[in-house]
Design brief:
GO terms for molecular function: actin filament binding; ATP binding; microfilament motor activity. Pfam families: IQ. Keywords: Actin-binding, ATP-binding, Coiled coil, Motor protein, Myosin, Nucleotide-binding. This protein is mainly α. The protein has 2 domains: 45 residues, Single alpha-helices involved in coiled-coils or other helix-helix interfaces; 83 residues. The chain has 3 helices and 2 strands. The chain is rod-shaped, with a radius of gyration of 37 Å.
Amino acid sequence: YRVLNASAIPEGQFIDSKKACEKLLASIDIDHTQYKFGHTKVFFKAGLLGTLEEMRDDRLAKLITRTQAVCRGFLMRVEFQKMVQRRESIFCIQYNIRAFMNVKHWPWMKLFFKIKPLLKSAETEKEMAT
């Protein structure tokens, strides 16, 4: 039930459980006549335990929803970065293909395409000779 008011019980300090229960129940908006403290137990009037359970469930639902929202936000930011990177890559590829399409019919480029395979064969012949 600490979820209902985490600031009521300080972290890192030892507090007797009875005092911790008293502080926690006092910090929650509940009528003080609805419960009593025994030596080792807290006694609730009818219906109060259900109310506390509902309050706790609501608080846990909010915390879980917030955690899910943060996780989904992180995952979508990562996905967005991937999409941006893919988009930039596509633009780079398109730019290079367009540039190649513009120069592939130049006479010097045609000559280069014919000579390039011959250069590899000449290189392999040199390696075989040595």
